[in-house]
Amino acid sequence: MKILVIGSGGREHALVWRLVRNGHEVVAAPGNPGIEQQARCVAVGVDELDRLVALAGAERVDLVVVGPEAPLVAGLADRLRASNIPTFGPGAAGAQLEGSKVFSKEFFARHGIPTARFRIATTVAEADASIDELGGNAVIKADGLAAGKGVVVAGSGSEAKAAVREMLEARRFGAAGARVVVEERITGREVSVLALTDGKRLEILPAVEDHKTIFDGDRGPNTGGMGSVSPAWINSDITSRITTEILQPTVRGLAADGIDYRGVLYAGVMVDAAGAPWLLEYNCRFGDPETQPIMARMLGDVGAVLAGAARGELPLGKLTCDARVAVCVVVAAAGYPGAPRTGDPIGGLDNIPADVVVFHAGTARKGEALVTAGGRVLGVTALGVSVEQARERAYAVVDAIQLDGKQVRRDIGARS
Question: Which of 139, 188, 338, 367 has the fewest beta carbons closer than 10 A?
């Protein structure tokens, strides 16, 4: 097939890499310097919806795969389908699962999906009262899109209230923080489970564990993700519970609400000490950096499966996994997750071993030089027969990368 992949990050590079390995011709918009080594890149931005629809038509593509959440929330998939272009990614109605924390929490409650107790607040007084009601044991979430940084897991009531003021008064996240969700904090261990769906059927992908904070030991502010490992720590019983208690009710609930959802359901799940899964949030697209280890391990024709889902005919059982472990270590720029420094030269990417793939995220070309162009710069992804071997291979490449001020967590995949 000829496939258009929309986006410019590490997630899109991983998708392009796998689709090309499956034998498909790929066009990317806008792509990045890593993607252009495998696909033809066209300089159309992810927010240029009319131009993206026109590009898909002009290229006569068989499938469009939308990578980022913002164009999905803005209705890009609806526009593409209105032009009879098969598209993998939900329409605007379904993308609200990620685009609005208020919508998603109300959806979970309406359809009996296990999730933490919550309150919705539009004023500081409402939020403070909710925090007090929860005894200070609270998580504060901006309602709208905030690039993975709009969640504060508070260690105390005062920290939760400070986060509320950052969002509602200081408007740290702009309009995305005009409403907040005050949620009870559930303790446990988090896991990411992604599933492909055509709105009726589900294909569960291998579970991934993300490392969200900037510093080792899960300290510091949240980022979009500093690394990931697949398979995750969960066993088949927990996976079965996540499928039957969370993913399947979600598909039924979307259909009951009249939402035709064709794309990824990315469940962020907290598993408590008793092994019970609690849904923290949904993303409406492939995760980053979760996609990198998933695609490194994926066997089978991913493009054919995504095309089937886009048509409403998801083929089941066509994908299998490499038995090896994949570890992705993110190399971030100086200043991330605040204001990342851009334009710094990147070196040391020659002679990458065969069992390691370096996925580009925040990179650009400046003449012949490769330079930083975002916060998360590269996702170094390695396969190994064990977590230890995969980590060793990934960090050997990470350590060889030359980037002034680079930030790297040293404990990706090292949790017990």
Answer: 367
